[in-house]
Amino acid sequence: VQIGIRGSIYEPGEHDWAIAQGIRIIYMEEFVRRGAASVMEEARGIVGDTPIYVTFDIDCIDPSMAPGTGTPELGGFTTREAQEMVRLLDGLTIVGADVVEVAPPFDLGGMTALAGATMMFELLCVMAKSVQAARAPD
Q1: Element (H, E) at 100
Q2: Mean pLDDT of 101-126
Q3: N or C: where does the chain have the smaller number of CB atoms within 10 Å of the terminal CB?
Q4: Average pLDDT over residues 28-50
Q5: How would residue 15 be classed by pLDDT, with cut points 50, 70 and 90?
Q6: Alpha carbons 43 and 15: distance in angstroms, whole number
Q7: Which among 90, 51, 57, 86 is positioned nearest to 73, based on CA atoms?
Q8: What pLDDT shows up at residue 14?
Q9: What are phi and psi of 25, to 5 degrees?
Q10: What values do phi and psi take at 137, rounded to 5?
Q11: Which of 130, 113, 1 is nearest to 54 (CA)?
Q12: For residue 67, what are the domain limits?
């Protein structure tokens, strides 16, 4: 599942391969229309109990809040929306996660580093909560 795909440069057919592989792409326009809870409910339904790896690409956040990336694109998530989506991963079987595309040379005032560290912390918290729940006595 890819959430928040946007941009002014993609061509018709650019995502055909991903879609043919069964990847659900939720474009930013759809996210805005539906909201985080609805989108994440669909994503959770798709992955079910399958172990998943989460990659958080920092350029999904609007460059007004995370400018330090090599591919800034207007119209992204707010940091609050991003946190909400990560928190809505609670209960999924996340076996690993990363935060990518933080580019310190472009990071004005460390805003992107803070956003990236916060998203990684949120992912680790969701993962730790899952491990803790699995270890809890019945």
Answers
A1: strand 94-100
A2: 96
A3: C
A4: 94
A5: confident
A6: 18
A7: 57
A8: 75
A9: -105, 120
A10: -65, 145
A11: 1
A12: 36-135
Domain CATH code at residue 126:
3.40.800.10
Is pLDDT of 12 > 80?
no
The tally of domains found in the chain comes to 1
Residue written as token pair 């956040």: 61
Joined together, the tokens standing for residue 51 give: 């172990």
Site of tokens 């609670």: 90
Nearest to 107 by CA among 115, 118, 99: 115
Q: What's the CA gap between 120 and 98, in Å, rounded? A: 7
Structure tokens at 36: 């985080």
Per-residue pLDDT tens for 107-119? 989 999 999 999 9
Residue 115 lies in a domain: yes
| Residue appearing with tokens 């946190």 | 83
